[in-house]
Amino acid sequence: MLINILQQAKMIGDRKIQLSQQILDATEQQSKKLKIAYQNHIESTNEQNSILNNNNNSNDTDSESGSHRPLWKRKFMINLEQNEKSNSNERDRKKLVQRNINSNNDNGKKMRINNDTSTIPPDETTYCLCSQLSYGSMILCDSKTCGIKWFHFNCVNLTNTPKGKWFCPNCRENRT
């Protein structure tokens, strides 16, 4: 009886971890989109300002840096870059830990996050047969020659981590 309750509590805890990881992944992806949009906006604004400044021949630049960007914006951008570098290692570590946790979906329900491939930055690593970013629960192919390595549970029709070795569909075909 007590073991049954503990197993149910573990399943609920694993489910909460999985959902929070999916929310974190979606939030990170949206944050990257917003950062790119913000940088594009800043670049276009700077281009417009430089055109206006060239036409007006005004001296609005900062004497030290020669930048048209206010000092608080420069400091903000530097802080963003520093925070992103320091947090990226922590996020990568947490993702690897999450991938190794046995995740149990309630009643075999499949969850899918809608990832649009056109919004993936070119420097971002993609995974799985679907060539999407890392999100949700993923599984590692045990084949040493697998070119993809990590797969989303949904894309390979898994709900739980299988016991023993697991091979992706491509490697299963190559083994026969």
Question: Which helices and strands occur, and which strands form pairs?
Answer:
Blueprint: H1 2-56, H2 71-100, E1 138-140, E2 150-152, H3 169-175
Antiparallel strand pairs: 1-2
Describe the structure.
With 176 residues, the chain is mainly alpha-helical. The protein has one domain. It is 52% helix and 3% strand. It has helices at residues 2-56, 71-100, 169-175; strands spanning 138-140, 150-152. 9% of the residues are buried.
Keywords:
single chain, 176 residues, mainly alpha, two-stranded antiparallel ribbon, 52% helix, 3% strand
Radius of gyration: 23 Å
Number of helices: 3
Sequence of secondary-structure elements? HHEEH
| Net shape | elongated
* Helical coverage, percent range: 40-55%
What is the mean predicted local confidence, pLDDT?
74
Provide the domain count. 1
Tell me the distance between the termini: 45 Å
Structural class, please? Answer: mainly alpha
Q: Identify the strand order in the major beta sheet.
A: 1-2
Summarize the structure.
This protein is mainly α. Helices cover 52% and strands 3% of the residues. It has one domain (2-175).
